Amino acid sequence: MLRRLACTVVQSRGIKHTVNVKWVRPDYVPSYKPEKSGDLEGLPPIPESALGKDYALSEEIKDASEAVKKIFSVGHLGRKEYNVLVKKEMMDRVKRHQYDQGSAETKIAYLTGQIRYLQDTMDKFPRNKRMKQLVQERIDRRKKLLKYLRQYDYKKFEWILEKLNIEYKAHPDSFHKLSRKESLKRLTEMHCDDIRNKKLADYRSLLESQQGPFLKQKLEALKFIRNEQQELQLQVTVTEQDIQKVEKLLADWTIKDEIKQQAQKKKKSILLDSD
Amino acid sequence: MARNVVETARKFLLLGQCVPTVKQNAAKIRVKRLELDENLLMYFRKDEFYYCHDPQKVCKTGDIVLIQSLPQKLTKLITHEVKEVVYPFGDITDPITGKKVAKERYREDMDRQAEIYGKLPSSFDYDKAPSRGWQDGKKDFTSKPTYTKFHVFDENDPYAI
């Protein structure tokens, strides 16, 4: 009984207990979400009263009554017609000429339009598996096109990111399921780095604080040696330049030291205020 | 074999590609090599990575650069220096005519085609476009390697996916 108790007490995972790091597992974000796909804006502001794409070309609709216009508006025609306008709006941002359909930028814009309205519908119906797959396919295809565009035309790549408001992140080295062990390992490494850097910074500031007094002492000593050598008419080994050099170093140090002390004072006052 | 390779690498210039790295004062260069497998008598690709001193930050991710070893190691990691950017990434010049190329077509040809069809103001203009790097860290996150998000930090790192 006792032995078993001792075992449970001794048995512990080293990292978990010796290092004070707290791990918070990141929340699951579905891959169709804008934060994963890199879309920085939602659907373009198209009013419900906007006319359908093909109906807007008609001559008769221009002087038609309000009721007729309402019938041919996207609000009345349905979501499908609205989505056509979304795609048109995205493509109009980057089109080269009127008939441009196949260039890389228009393809990317077309996919972006599709992605944005599919994302919008996914938010309403998150259990729609078929649609989830459709969005994912489009996001992947757009990413591939962006990757190629980046390879052969970097300027256009950056321009299109700005125009369509997309973020581009390269693929990570490996796609793997996140594990507790890996996360804790990386957190521990970061913790150790922090400790090391802090110790190094402390030691550095300690050495720097000793620089001033040493330089003062050195300056005095140099001046004394020079005076003695001149008085005793010996060979003068300490030149004016040497002394000036040390004076300059000392002046630099005093400026730095003042800045540092002011920063420390500020920190202290902030701490006191927060308390 | 391996020693010979290392020695020759020290003497000559190496051609490599710049890859994303977290190091701020150095560029990470990948040099592709082929290694003979003596059992199969076949060559297999083998990559070597060199950290190169690059104070002016002349090379960006993806550039093809020439590197040369330093007479002394600068740090434990940095052994080489960047000599010259040979081919900037995504800004290709045709070596025969000296014209700029996008994929398999000249940029001026694409412009002419657009003009014939009727160029729209929304089209991309190469002359007005700023040089590469104006979106770096804003919308273009390719200068550092991305990784799987493993913890919820106070500050959100854009390179965590």
TrEMBL record, chain A:
SUPFAM superfamilies: S15/NS1 RNA-binding domain (SSF47060). One of its GO terms (molecular function) is structural constituent of ribosome. GO terms for biological process: mitochondrial translation. It is found in: Mitochondrion. Signal peptide: none annotated. Its main location: mitochondrion. Belongs to the universal ribosomal protein uS15 family. This is Small ribosomal subunit protein uS15m.
From TrEMBL, chain B:
One of its GO terms (molecular function) is structural constituent of ribosome. The keyword S-adenosyl-L-methionine does not apply. Coiled coil: none annotated. Belongs to the universal ribosomal protein uS17 family. The keyword Ribonucleoprotein applies. One of its GO terms (cellular component) is mitochondrial small ribosomal subunit. It holds the Pfam family Ribosomal_S17. Keywords: Ribonucleoprotein, Ribosomal protein. One of its GO terms (biological process) is mitochondrial translation. This is 28S ribosomal protein S17, mitochondrial.
